[in-house]
Request: fold
Amino acid sequence: MLRVSLLGEQVIADDESGAVLTRSPRSVALVAHLVVHAGRAQPRRLLAGLFWPDSTDAQALTNLRRELHQLRRVLGDPPSLTVTGQDLCWRDTSSSRVDVREFDVARMAALAAADPGEAVAHAGAALATYRGELLPALADDWVLAARAELDRQCVELCDLICRTSSADPAAALAAARRRIALRPLEETGYRTLMGLQAEAGDRAGAVSTYHRCASILERELGVVPAEPTRAALRRLLARPDHEPRRAAAPGLVGRAAELARLGETWRAAAAGRAGFVLVRGDAGVGKTRLVAELAGLARAEGAVVAAGRCFGTPGRLALAPVADWLRTPAVQRAAAALDPVWRAEVDRLLPATRTAVGGPLRDAGAWQRLRFFEGLARALTAGGRPVLLVLDNAQWCDEETGAFLTFCLGLLPDAPLLVAGTLREGDQDRGVTAWTAQLRDDGRLTELPLRPFDAVGTARLGEAVAGRALSASDRELLYAATGGYPLYVVEALRAHDSPPAEGLAAVLRTRLEQPGPAAREIAGLAAAAGRDFTLDLLTEASDLDADTVVDAVDELWRRRIVREFGGAYDFTHDLLREAAYQQVSPPRRWLLHRRLAQGLELLHAEDTDAVAAQLAVQYARGGRPDRAVAHYRRAAAVAAGTFAHAEAIRLLREALVLVRARPASGHRDRDELAVLEALAGPLNAHQGYSSPELQRTLERSLALAESLGDGEAALTALLELWSSRFVQGRTADAYEAAERALALIVPGTSAEQSGSAHFIVAGSSLSLGHDPAEALRHFDLGAERTRGASSWPIGTRPDVHGPAWAAHAHWLLGHDDAAVACGAEAIALARRIDQPYSLAIALAYAGITHQMRRDRRALGAVAAELRALCDRYGFAYYREWALVLGGWSLGGAAGLAAAQRGLANLKAEGAFARMPYWLALVAELSAPDAARATLDAALAAGQARDDRWWLPEVLRLRAAYDADPVPRLRAAAELARAQGSVALLRRAEADLAGRSPS
Reply:
């Protein structure tokens, strides 16, 4: 059976297997046109002219025949599709399921039903089928007309359900919200929802609905709600005939030049040059207001506009602005048409489908981060329309959002996309400085400094706020007092209706003293939240009854102290939030934070992950460090689940501070160990194995585990510590950790841990120059004990990493064919499992195998693939291997330069493992004097770092620059013999055979 999905997506699939048959926009659109006109034959000439309007009639008909042939080749001969020489027709049959037809059948049943319950059931079924707009990626005239008609029918069904609310109150509320989403500028939907909420006893929700209505109408149309809507609010609030007047919102004043420049940037981006425009300036200079004006212009032009904000509080959520953008209805509708592989990446971020991951090194999955970013980028630009993403308060932007933006603009340089950000000067994090600098270097950043008004601009704004002309003396005083800062001007005139005599802080305090006692109390509680908040949260956390809280928020909203924002509320400016918080006494703050934490837990009892970071901060500030630590750990795991490793590190550092502040005890040590174990994975993913902080973390974990007698935790710490020490070039220390890990294996130890212990013994033993045969024995034991496992505690797959490294032991033993076979086996498996990081490991180790065999052709191919893979997925460590190995393969000046660059990068990353080997490769490409010095450095590095496996070859190469090479060649042969390196012994003996004794 065919499944044709046209609402919210564009795909034709096999209904039983789920296999996608086609996503071709032309094929799906042709089927869609026939489906929309089901039962009515569509002439071929009409279809040809509709789909190929720029072709001649003959060519258009040919194109239609070709498209029809392709469609029937993919779909077979579905009974639903009737084809004649003159026309095409779609008919409903049992051989296909079409969401548009299912919607229409259920809709007609709802309209025909006499029983209200039956009507609501059919209408609900129709709405469930309507998962999004028709063919979201297309904008042809016939599509727009059909889409508008389906949209109207959907609204009609929402109204039907709302009219029969007694049959299913919950369905009526959902339908009213659906209607608002479909018709956001029609007040009817808001009044209906307000009425339903009032009937359900949700007075707070009804008032919030009114605020949302008023905010949208003001922003989009510049009008206030009509009298019927205002009367509905008065009934809710039990107020007299005329509600208090809301403070006026002045239009944009005095920014014509800046707005024009923003408009130019937007038009360039909309034409296909993706970019980032950053409006910079002091607090209160009008950055947000200016960008809001740009958003209004873009929206009026039919662009997709999505807004996100950053908050300067520790309870922020990584990638929160990106999540806000993705929740925008227009973005959601377009993203629904994405291929499932990309929709799965989006699902990682959105709370409704987020799955928590994270933990130790083995779960980091850092290679998937760029695929995740690509999925988000595709979702944001899926609709084909120009897109404006607003990023307010970019100075507080988390590192992951900044990384995503630089990636997105690099991935889609020709997309009709503009990110418009605001940044407060002097407050930005170091991470913000880094990613904005990268955008600047890439030519993607446009910066617009915003300065205070001059005296004339200040007077114009003042008169717009006051609603009257100002005298000359008032103009002078207003400018002198405010310095031309728009926020100061607006708040001063709202506080005094005349030019202020005090500073901005005093003006804001006066503004916050204007509301009544209840509203002031709620303002303090809202400020303690540190970010946007809901009426439900304030009601749960306040001592006041729900009606009083609702009235208080309404008063704050009318005075424009708070504003409605995406179904929640926030202060109209961060400085107002700060001022409100300062007016709360420290003991009172402690109580408010604790109540907010309890309120968040009650409201999110079924999914605390979404607010884990907020809970951690509120409990920490509310004097409950024990609960704060637990939530910091959970928040870090959530962050790691979206590859936000920098954010996970920040959260876990906060937890460590709280744990270490407690008195010493076994319980405290266990809590510290748990936090450190969680910290290791993000540190490795973000900073790499050679990170000094990772090393300190693992060493402290080991010490704590041993003091607590926790053998399993000690084994885990040793396995992970081995990776850190080995990559840093501390070969003997790594071997010591490996031997200790092996000694901790007891009955009941997991196969993954047991196999990992043998693997790390093998690797460090080989590097120390021990017998390669013994290393092979441990490699084999590691593979045997972890057969079928997907990962080891050290972070890589045993069935790939083991054979890849065992190939080197085989080669040293003289098993040339076995070495090649092991490397090929690892590469083949990595390709089959489609895991880029495993493939990078397999290619990297195969590269060394080919180099040792001096097979430049095979090495060149492997190094080129490895470098491309590392560039695509950001594998820095193995990218440097590719540079050195590829440089050796290439030879000449270009090869030397590449190898030297890779070597320098390894050193800069603190990765000194195999340094004698890498130096030897560089020496082979260098001029004699440089080669001699490089080989001497390799010998010194080998002795200093106990990295001896390649030293026989280094001695052999160095002998070529001695006046009498024989003594050094004999030393090379003796060392190779002692180490059991058959292949290196053969090389040294061959050179000796060609020399006569001195």
